[in-house]
Amino acid sequence: MDHRERSRIYHHNETHGTSDNIDQNTAVDDVKRPGFFERVKEDIEAIISVLLLQSVFSRSEVS
What we know:
The protein has three helices and no strands. It is elongated, with a radius of gyration of 18 Å. By secondary structure, the protein is an all-alpha fold.
């Protein structure tokens, strides 16, 4: 489960500390943000998926 999936499960909207869904028993992995390399990896995956979609669409237009 990556950061985006955890965020959807635990944090539906910004609470600015007024929510009680995080307490001392909450695991650190459930609330920490992704590190630099994790964000870079996610950005590269997004770029690759966009490029693959573009190549699929451009091939389908040619056919």
